[in-house]
Amino acid sequence: MTLLSLQNPVFEAYVIAAALMVLKLMGQGWMTVYRMMKTSSGMVSPEDLRPGLLNTAPSPDQLEINDYVDRSRRMHRNDLENIPGFLFAGLLFVVADPALWLAQALFFGFVAARLGHFWAYATAQSHEVRATFYTIGSLIVIYLAAAALWAALT
After folding, report:
1. Distance CA 148, CA 30 (A)
2. Cα dihedral 110, 115, 118, 123 in deg (nearest 10)
3. What is the pTM (predicted TM-score) of this model?
4. What secondary structure does DSSP assign to the chain, as a single string?
5. 28: closest CA among 113, 126, 133, 117?
């Protein structure tokens, strides 16, 4: 059995967690687009004010910050800062051939932490709540990378 095969249950767990995180990352971008279209606001570039099929009556105030749109944009940015590290570190961890229970706990723990972070951000919870979910996810990624490095060095 090769480590990077769906016959390997560790790799299978990684594929499930990674696919969920890629869908979350891409879905957040679409949520931002939806919010921009719903409110006809939250544009970020001057060329966004050119008339088009979806913005037939542009207005300079569309470039002003709209928290409803910007909150989604900030969540997307946060995903872009965190999910790629998980994708890389998780794959390196698979190659280190860890115990299945540990891999599942870490992979699905990261997914749960990111979903918790999404919930905290989307519902405007306090920074401490949001930071708790971020910290859990961050520590998991650090562990994944450190364990893979240790396996490579020993």
Report:
1. 33
2. -140
3. 0.91
4. --TTSTTSHHHHHHHHHHHHHHHHHHHHHHHHHHHHHHHT----SGGGGS--SS-SS--GGGGS--HHHHHHHHHHHHHHHHHHHHHHHHHHHHHT---HHHHHHHHHHHHHHHHHHHHHHHTT--HHHHHHHHHHHHHHHHHHHHHHHHHHH-
5. 117
Other beta carbons less than 10 A from residue 28's beta carbon: 22
d(CA 114, CA 81): 12
The string of pLDDT tens digits covering residues 41-82 is: 999 999 988 998 888 888 899 989 999 999 999 999 999 999
Domains (ranges, CATH) in the chain? 9-153 (1.20.120.550)
Query: b/e string for 75-84 if b means 16 or more Cβ within 10 A?
Result: bbebbeebbe
100 closest CA partner among 24, 16, 38: 16
User: Residue for token digits 């944009």?
Assistant: 73
